[in-house]
Amino acid sequence: PEIYLNGLADQTPPFTTDPTRLAEAARERLADGPYWYVAGAAGSGATERANRAAFDRRRLVPRMLTGATERSLATTVLGEELAAPVLLAPVGVQGILHEDGELATARAAAGVGVPMVLSTASSHTIEDVAQANGAGQRWYQLYWPNDDDVTVSILDRARRAGFTTLVVTLDTWTLAWRPRDLDQSYLPFIRGVGCAIPFSDPAFRAGLAKPPEEDVLSAVLKWVPTFTGTDKTWDRLPFLRRHWEGPIVLKGIQHVGDARRAAAAGMDGIVVSNHGGRQVDGAVASLDALEPIAAAVGERLDVLFDSGVRTGADVLKALALGAKAVLYGRPYAYGLALGGEDGVRHVLRSLLADLDLTLGLSGHSSVAEVGPGSLSLE
Ligand code: FNR
């Protein structure tokens, strides 16, 4: 009804309601650097395109006369009740996109009732984002530092700031070959909208000769070896368990064998993700990896999904293939760039409305009813 009433009052949305046109809208408004930071992918963009093609290959099969006028999007993930099977994916350095950055995202997420996953590379501090998020639900995404003191300090701050679940991103132990970022000489730190950790974290600051306020370059030079590198292996996971009481989720899983290892290591969940095609160019489409992974470990841990989700139908397809919830990435980042808090709210409300309608019109009253049968002709 809101849509018809807005039409009568001659009110139009702040920008397009079509998630597939957000990039185009952002292209018109953003400078090259911020635009390509979001829109860019690894290498030739083959995996980013494959992510979308995998959605396009699958089709929902609607059922009739199911009485789906009353619907619920509610679900439970990792013991936490969610209003919908959707979370905001961690997106770093949001200060590049809007001056309020993660604070705007946190406010919008809390208002709409969708949990946010805060990136380690956030432009605003853990504590400030938590305050902006208020009574909202928040998870923390860890880029796992090589310095254990820094890790423990960050985890402790996140726990005290009310973050419930830890999402450990495994696929970005170094940034991939991203031609678009390289073309822009993308240096967010030096532009002054970089990551808050070097400035805010006592353990990180302790290792610097001069405070980052006085010597940004040294802070950047310490950031790189602290947050990149390959010394992490499966046998290091108990360390995280010792320092985090809540659920732990591994993000970036694409292989059934790795999903099994996560389950064997006692992890609570995984995110089947290829980072939106931003890491390994030529990697498998994330949606193609989802079905065999969910079949192998879905009974033992909660399987979440991201990379390529744009519409309500996409969310339903991921659920049908075994995901318990999805992480929404680039679309809300464009929303933030286009309209700050209002922009993120517009993108999120549009997704949830689309999801609700498509759920009902395909014959389901609740997300629990969505399964392999939702994609099957018989
Ligand atoms: C990301 N992603 C990401 N992931 C993460 O774990 N930590 C991070 O800091 C970031 N930063 C980030 C920045 C930008 C601009 C983008 C687009 C993505 C990956 C993100 O969480 C998610 O996996 C992808 O965005 C999913 O792909 P789609 O749906 O955006 O195509």
UniProtKB/TrEMBL annotation:
Keywords: Oxidoreductase. It comes from the Bacteria. Residues 11-378 form the FMN hydroxy acid dehydrogenase domain. The keyword Oxidoreductase applies. Its cofactor is FMN. InterPro entries: Aldolase_TIM, Alpha-hydoxy_acid_DH_FMN, FMN-dep_DH, FMN_HAD, FMN_hydac_DH_AS, LMO_FMN. The keyword Oxidoreductase applies. Pfam families: FMN_dh. Belongs to the FMN-dependent alpha-hydroxy acid dehydrogenase family. This is Lactate 2-monooxygenase. It comes from Streptomyces polyrhachis.
